[in-house]
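Hi X.,

You mentioned you wanted examples for the new student's onboarding notes, showing what a folding record looks like when two proteins sit in one file. Here is a clean example. The first protein comes first, with its sequence line followed by its structure tokens.
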Amino acid sequence: MSNPFELSEEQRAIQEMAQGFTADVITPNAARWDEEHHFPREVMTQAGELGFGGIYVSEAGGGVGLGRLEAALAIEAMAYGCPTIAAFISIHNMVAWMVDTYGDDALKARHLPGLVAMDTLGSYCLTEPGSGSDAAALRTTARRDGDHYVLNGTKQFISGGGVNDVYLIMVRTGDDSPRGISCVLVEKGTPGLSFGAAEKKLGWNASPTAQVILEDVRIPVTNRLGAEGEGFKIAMAGLDGGRVNIGACSLGGAQRCIDEAIQYTKDRKQFGRAIADFQNTQFVLADMATDLEASRALLYLAAAKITANAPDKTRFSAMAKKLATDNGSAIVDRALQMFGGYGYLRDYPIERFWRDLRVHRILEGTNEVMRLIIGRDLLK
């Protein structure tokens, strides 16, 4: 009987490829990107050349056709160098998958080749200034006008806003219920599409975030994904994978900080001995490692459930996202404490990871909303 906890040869191969890419391209530059608030577009092209632009896009759609566990392994590996870049690639993959899964043949032919290659970058636009956790209350409208829609509204906190080429936007085409929401694709350069100023953030400085503003934006009806009224279902299906991916970003960042803390406590001496020799240090490291492995096991299970389309995949993706992002933040915080005052300085990577991982408990649905999803599913 095979070991269910052992990665397959194919899974190890994608993990090792992502680890190599991270070590060569991401880790050496991540601190500079953060300091300079620089978005490394060229790194996205390099990622696309390795197949990281369409990890779970079907082979028929030009992607790699792998499962969600393989995607989580790759994203976790990249987050070891920079959670911001890993999260950006995660969001892009979600967009590419949604186009592949719900777009018609013409839409896929027009956009998938560029998305998979990461020559074209995609943004996911659900959140609005007045509807964050209550996503079904979105107010952005798409009024039908013959063979076109006319779009009006504003999307908030959009990763890649103003930089990316394609925007998947959830709009209201019907009544005020979730059944009144549809999903449309808008290309950068479409008249009436504009962007707010780049947001000034605590972290994620290597990834631009801005409002996406729609003022009488006219697009063909053929830019719709799925049927009218299927937008909320599409958005939620995308979020199952997005939650696992953002959890994977927390795993990678937490693993990096544990590794940094282990090395630092071995090297740093206080009261005539290495910090690592103190029992308290060992106990804290033990708790950090245990919490990380528990999060990793649940997240990998949730990823497998999404690939298998298991009926409880939404609950498990919410559980995995909550546990991995809560534990990721706590692990990085404890690592910073081990570094003492040095952990607070930008000379060391811990403070960057502390800033970058904090937002994971908010995006792709706050962890409070994850608790709602889990509780409601248990009680239904």
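Then the second protein repeats the pattern, sequence line and then tokens:
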Amino acid sequence: MIKVGDTLPSTTLFEYSEVEGEGCSIGPNAVDVAKATAGKTIALFALPGAFTPTCSAQHVPGYVANAEAFKAAGVDEIWCLSVNDAFVMGAWARDQKTAGKVRMLGDGSADFAKAAGLTLDLTAKGLGLRSNRYSMLVKNGVVASLNVEGPGKFEVSDAATLLAQAKAV
């Protein structure tokens, strides 16, 4: 499993853009993790699935509500990762009103989750291989703090915990 001091896996995530801008076309756009994190501080959180109860009711809304506080603490971007495709993440972004606050990134084949050693097998519940629930502060592509949840928990990957860590760094 990835740990503090490790570099993020060199993988590609996908993001759905509602409108054209900054050289991005509408539709799924590849996000090279190494390039996208270079020279930036990223508040990254991951969860098992879009539109799921805890993820939609608590996890994402906490980061959306605290977006300005993260920026004030020196965070350049907030990323939400889930093992869903970019189209689902785009629909969830509209539903959660994340525009301009949280980048909703699809890890459709779980490449990032697998490379980071942060997978969650929910096959018995009909969901297949997913991402574990966690948060991390990333500085220039390197993990500065990591908060991994226990099975079925939502106690340490919340926005308040990661915001406190961002303020302390």
